[in-house]
Amino acid sequence: MTSSKLAVFLNKHGHRHRLLTMDEVRADGEVAAQLSEAAKAELLELCEEQFAQLEKLQEEIIQCEPDSSEDPEDQLVKRLMATDAELKQWLSMKPSLLATNSDILLQAGKDEMLKLCSDLEMVVSCCEAKRDKLRETKELEQKWLEEKKQVVLTINDHIERLRVEMEKCSEHNIFLETKAKIQKVKAYQENLMENLGDILAMHAPLSQKESSASKNKKNFPLELNENHISLSEILEVLMDKVINTPHDPYVTVDDTFWPPYVEMLLRYGVAVRHQENNFKIRLETFF
Amino acid sequence: MSLLAPFNKLPTLNTASILLVESEEQFQQSLAVALVEEMTVTVNVRLARSLPLPLENDESRPRIDLVVFIINLTSDLSFRSAKASLKYLDPGYFLGKVCFMATNARHASVHTGLLDAVRQLAVSLHCPLLFAEDQTPEDVKSSARRLLTILKVASGLVPNTSALFLSNLTRCTMPLDIDQPSFD
Q: Which residues form a coiled coil (chain B) (predicted)?
């Protein structure tokens, strides 16, 4: 675009604005129908004048040869030029009086004022609506905040209570539990022992009695019989040995063990003989 | 080749003319209906599938103040059609009287890269790029309102503003990292 064309183009632009302002004024004049005949005539004359100028500029634009260039660089330069020209135009533009007739000016001013007022009213109502909404939001948020704060407080309280409770209870509880367990196990063991004692008393009476009975019949040596211990005692010795010295559970069979009992224990798999030493036995590993 | 020029005709009083170019003619109609509801000025809406415009009704056609290219982001064809149509516009239009409107950007089947291509196009031509949806009447209405704002300026109906001035503020700009690789 040549600079002359640019100037024309921009002139037209500026011109168009003024023209439209005039048009508005004229339209208002028609609607209000308050302007005097003279003012109307003057306005019409002004419009005619402007339109004539517009037509002249239009002619000039059409006269200019169109230069179409696809190069984006070129277009960019043109754009810069156009913007620059427009800037200059704005800077050099002088405010001019719309018309000399005071009627027209009054009417235009009134109209502008009314328009401005309605615009400002709209701005005010918009701002008020926004403010109200913000206020509402603020109240809501504050309510939420309050609720959240209370929740935090309650939770903290709860945590504190739980912690205190736990501290107080934990040791005592464990202690009590363990105690109960121990007692249960003890009772169970007692029960087992009692049962065992009953069975032994019923089925394996003290060898002394038997031996004393057999003494008369079979004439066994007396001192042997006196040393013999009961089956329950043999078992006790075996068990004690296993528990106390697990690495060496063997017990030496001496003359206090009545041989039939030992034989019975070995035969029913309650006790096992040492592989190398015939005189040693141990309790079978039941566990 | 007949170029569509921005200043080859005289303007009409209190009138703004807009040309909607869309190859698929999906959004045009509803948008046009929403546009003519404007009361303060007479809005003249012209529809076209592509440019150049037919010569026979050239006489009856008003001066076009704003050309809007509607590009459907789910169709590659609409983009290519719009790009081809750009050749038939006078360079004077690119001083603030062209705007791109991308639709269906939220659609799932948007071609990857098409959005970038559209943006690239808008950047290279220094035109604003609007995003619009056409699913609900509210969407159409708000799109029309945005277009009207630009249209009023482009047709010189807003005092103390010009299309070039507005377009310098609203033109699409590309974030640097898309155009060039960053080095850090």
A: none
DSSP character for A56? H
Whether B64 and B46 have beta carbons less than 8 Å apart is answered as: yes
Number of domains making up chain B: 1
Domain's final residue, options A52, A68, A100: A100
| Residue B65 covered by a domain | yes
- Cα–Cα distance for residue pair B9/B60, rounded to 1 Å: 11
Which residue segment(s) compose the domain that A248 sits in?
A: 204-283
Q: Do A82 and B164 touch (CB under 8 A)?
A: yes
Q: What pTM value is reported for the model? A: 0.57
What pLDDT, on a 0 to 100 scale, did the predictor assign at position B94? 86
Residue pair B66/B99 in contact (Cβ under 8 Å)? The answer is yes
Shortest Cα distance, chain B CAs vs residue A63, angstroms:
10
Three-class secondary structure of residue B127 per DSSP? coil
B3 domain-assigned = no
User: Residue A196: what are its φ and ψ, rounded to 5°?
Assistant: -60, -45
Closest CB to B126 among A13, A20, A79: A79
Domain that holds residue B63: 16-179
Decide if A89 is inside a domain: yes
Q: Are strands B66-72 and B42-48 parallel, antiparallel or unpaired?
A: unpaired
Q: Is B11 on the interface with A (CB under 8 A)?
A: yes
Q: Mutate which of A64, A77, A79, A115 to disrupt the B interface (most B C-beta within 10 Å)?
A: A79
Q: Which two tokens stand for residue A251?
A: 């017990």
CATH label of the domain that carries residue B64: 3.40.50.300
Specify if B97 maps to a domain.
yes
In a domain, A149, yes or no: no
Q: Helix or strand or coil: residue A23?
A: helix
Distance from CA of A100 to the nearest CA of B (A): 21
Q: Single out the residue in A100, A135, A166 at which a domain terminates.
A: A100
**Are B8 and A1 inside 8 Å of each other by CB?**
no
In a domain, B11, yes or no: no
Nearest to A46 by CA among A38, A36, A56: A38
Could you read off the pLDDT of B34-84 as tens digits, one per residue? 998 888 888 989 898 888 888 877 788 888 899 999 998 888 888 999 999
User: Please, which residues have CB within 8 angstroms of residue B9's CB and are 6 or more apart in sequence?
Assistant: A58, B62, B63
- What domain count does chain A have? 2
Strands (E), chain A: 251-252, 271-273, 280-283
